[in-house]
User: Which sequence fits this backbone?
């Protein structure tokens, strides 16, 4: 399992403020909190409020995060120049978040990820829009895998993001994403599957329950790279438990070791 | 969703003690706590420490629980005489927990549930032992449904218990039960599916994470009658969230109403 921590995102007010004020202490603290909670990667997004400054924002953010903890960097940008600069700064083993099947984005981003030793999140959006159900997600994942492997990526360097949409948008929205996770996992045992689940609770009260239930069910269905806030109580405990339930934690050793280390909160 | 609260079970030391001392205040308090936390039914098991006293134990427990709250009674006994007496005491709309495919138990229990206006939990154990995987659970559920409907039960009076076994017994143990839940739900949209999930965490530390992850994933897969301790924080919130994720809560109205009522803890 690879836990990607989502909080350092300029779409959040506190992060945008720290970014515009170049408040390194604040960013470093958020990075450390997420690292201490059990994150494997820190997602870093500097795309707001002024997209023209994204390249300098993301390189600054990465420098601060690297100074604050020793976790991997998940470079979160749809801008090819910012993504390339971010990956260069982040070094080997970084993750690009994300490429998609949209032609313009694919054409611009594919050279960026092809030339780097990095993992890449493949978002299943295309020029036809959002994926429709489990079968559509599997078909789109096949197209994504074909493009990325042709560009030199290995199957275990690919993280398919099935697109979690708000439950409030339709009763089947999340169930379809989870069906997609299951179909993709059955097709490729070695691929990674991950995505931001907090989108699912948009517009609902006490969002954490929807986020946690989505995460647990998706992990049991085959997701292994949750993009979450690991500081929310229940997140790491349920993530490790769900990995074990999925049959991906033999003898529950990871679960038991995490419990012993005090990481199951 | 029907939440069945599991705590009044004589296999728990505190309940066995209260039972042998006829400590009605203690039993009533446990019943009320579970009712206040959101239980729809209170499971009542009086089978220990002395099975010879099960009939008088269970009727006393039911009387105490009925005096303490207005929830339905889930009569938890494998003894036909105790089950019959318990169902008579519990009145209309009670649940029998449980019948199984084991010939002796089926033959003894079927007349008990046939003559009563009650729901019945059908445990997928048989004389061949425990169910093996998802397909085996579906086949056993078909046999169970055939027997129960032949005895006059309607499909929505049947609660299939897929048998949740300890994760520590095998990495695939819980995934197989959840696969069974999914197969059974696809086959019968109107049937109920439920079971005790706390068995899955047997022998593991911080059991609540395994229990909650199992519950959430099983509900998303189609379970609608979790047998749980609703007083454990996270249980009701995740149960309502998972029901919504499963597409069984249109416009998330049950989730939102439960949030407004302060029931999502």
Assistant:
């Amino acid at each position: 399992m690879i836990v990607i921590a989502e909080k350092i995102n300029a779409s959040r007010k506190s992060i945008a403020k720290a970014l515009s004020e170049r408040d390194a202490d604040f960013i470093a603290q958020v990075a450390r909190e997420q690292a201490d909670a059990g994150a494997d990667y820190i997602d870093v997004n500097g795309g707001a409020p002024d997209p023209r400054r994204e390249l300098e924002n993301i390189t600054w953010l990465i420098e601060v995060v690297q100074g604050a903890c020793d976790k991997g960097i998940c470079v979160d940008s749809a801008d090819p120049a910012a993504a390339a600069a971010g990956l260069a700064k982040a070094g080997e083993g970084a993750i690009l978040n994300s490429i998609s099947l949209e032609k313009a984005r694919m054409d611009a981003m594919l050279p960026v990820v092809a030339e780097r030793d990095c993992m890449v999140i493949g978002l299943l959006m295309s020029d036809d829009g959002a994926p429709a159900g489990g079968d559509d997600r599997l078909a789109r994942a096949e197209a994504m895998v074909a493009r990325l492997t042709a560009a030199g990526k290995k199957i275990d360097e690919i993280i398919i993001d099935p697109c979690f949409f708000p439950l409030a948008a339709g009763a089947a929205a999340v169930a379809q994403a989870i069906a997609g996770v299951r179909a993709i996992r059955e097709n490729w045992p070695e691929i990674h599957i991950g995505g931001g689940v907090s989108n699912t609770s948009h517009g609902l009260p006490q969002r954490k329950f929807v986020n946690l239930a989505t995460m647990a069910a998706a992990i049991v269905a085959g997701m292994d790279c949750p993009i979450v806030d690991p500081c929310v109580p229940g997140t790491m405990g349920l993530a490790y438990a769900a990995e074990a339930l999925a049959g991906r934690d033999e003898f529950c050793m990871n679960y038991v070791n995490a419990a012993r280390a005090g990481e199951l909160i």
In short: The interface with chain B takes residues 167-168, 171-172, 174-175, 178, 200, 204-206, 208-210, 212-214, 216-217, 219-221, 234, 237-238, 240-242, 244-252, 255-256, 259-260, 264 of chain A (CB under 8 Å). Strands of chain A lie at 4-9, 41-45, 72-76, 95-100, 119-123, 158-161, 192-196, 225-228. The mean pLDDT of chain A is 96.
